[in-house]
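$ ./design --mode recover --in tokens.txt
reading tokens...
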């Protein structure tokens, strides 16, 4: 048996499928579902997550960059892949060659595509993005009609979708949400007035899937909820999402030290009593933030143990004096559940002043992902 690195991110594919089915139940059978798997599937591993998604009822995958789309194609994915964060001229050829579907926000991108359409015999499908208030990608209102004229001039380019993205993270700012919806409807009208029929309208991320049925249109684009977390703590709606990732490691060293012993770089922690200190082989290079220094907690023996001293690149120390049963080699959970206790990415995010997305995406490439799949409870 090959020795396994003690730190692993356990990925529960059954939980992932459960979350995906919750989305499907919610939106019904007619609305298309694009599973968002960008950023290594929010840290969960893009290829295995995509394969799990595609064995359920999804109509495509969403990535940020061309490179991510290429990885999926090389892994044998044949379904539609939407490249949502734009592309550069030198990526155009690969985009077409691999049959990826670009989201377009700038007329120059049409020209790049047009110059390369000979690469493929298929029509080149695109989704057009409208900036309805995010202030990031997308055409502004006045740019829409000229853009459509230009797209229409090329017989090989086919507009498959019209999309936009919400700026408000939990959609509680109703006036802003209404304004974005109105701008999106207006974009649709402008385009339909030019006698162009767009098959797929889409705008809904997880927040809108949970809280704004009017934004579902023809397709939804869930990301974070597939990984088991609501987009913000406020939106933890009555839907039973199951966290997919458990980040765990094992105690690699255990020592009893006298009172007055300083722990880790900078001597920022000194024991006040005789203490049992466990060393964990995980650090900021694994995505366990240095911000947890003297602040974080990990689960050992089903209880919370405090991080003491600075988190190092490869190691973190915890005070386990109050957990009498602890032994060398015992499991420590940094994200997830152990026994009766849970450290959710949601709670960790609140403590660090960030969002669960960042906590999950931070788990670095050094951490092996271990995939588990059990029976799916119906
Ligand atoms: C990341 C992303 C999503 C998914 O958002 P969640 O909040 O994770 O559901 C949807 N649409 C676009 C354009 C995105 O970039």
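writing sequence...
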């Amino acid at each position: 048996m090959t020795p396994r690195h003690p730190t692993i991110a356990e990925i529960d594919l059954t939980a992932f499928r459960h979350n995906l089915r919750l989305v499907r139940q919610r939106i019904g059978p007619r609305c298309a579902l694009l599973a968002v798997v960008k950023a290594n599937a929010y840290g969960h591993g893009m290829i295995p997550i995509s394969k799990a998604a595609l064995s359920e009822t999804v109509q495509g995958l969403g990535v940020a960059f061309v490179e991510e789309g290429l990885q999926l194609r090389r892994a044998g994915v044949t379904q539609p892949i939407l490249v949502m964060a734009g592309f550069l001229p030198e990526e155009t050829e690969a985009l077409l060659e691999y049959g990826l579907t670009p989201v377009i926000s700038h007329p120059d991108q049409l020209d790049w595509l047009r110059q390369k359409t000979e690469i493929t015999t298929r029509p080149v499908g695109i989704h057009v993005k409208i900036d309805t208030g995010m202030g990031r990608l997308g055409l502004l209102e006045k740019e829409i009609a000229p853009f459509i004229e230009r797209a229409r001039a090329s017989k090989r380019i086919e507009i498959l979708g019209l999309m936009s993205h919400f700026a408000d993270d939990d959609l509680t700012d109703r006036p802003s949400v209404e304004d974005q919806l109105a701008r999106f409807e207006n974009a649709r009208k402008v385009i339909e007035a030019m006698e162009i029929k767009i098959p797929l309208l889409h705008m809904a991320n997880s927040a809108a899937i949970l809280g704004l049925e009017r934004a579902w249109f023809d397709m939804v684009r869930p990301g974070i909820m597939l990984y088991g977390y609501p987009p913000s703590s406020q939106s933890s709606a009555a839907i039973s999402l199951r966290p997919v990732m458990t980040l765990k490691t094992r105690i690699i060293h255990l020592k009893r030290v006298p009172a007055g012993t300083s722990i880790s770089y900078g001597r920022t922690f000194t024991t006040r009593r005789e203490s049992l200190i466990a060393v964990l082989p995980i650090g900021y290079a694994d995505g366990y933030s240095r911000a947890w220094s003297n602040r974080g907690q990990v689960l050992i023996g089903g209880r919370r143990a405090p991080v003491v001293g600075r988190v190092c690149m490869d190691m973190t120390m915890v005070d386990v004096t109050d957990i009498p049963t602890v032994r060398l080699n015992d499991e420590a959970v940094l994200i997830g559940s152990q026994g009766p206790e849970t450290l959710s990415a949601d709670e960790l995010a609140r403590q660090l002043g960030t969002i669960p997305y960042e906590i999950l995406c931070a788990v670095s490439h050094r951490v092996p992902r271990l995939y588990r799949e059990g029976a799916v409870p119906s």
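exit 0
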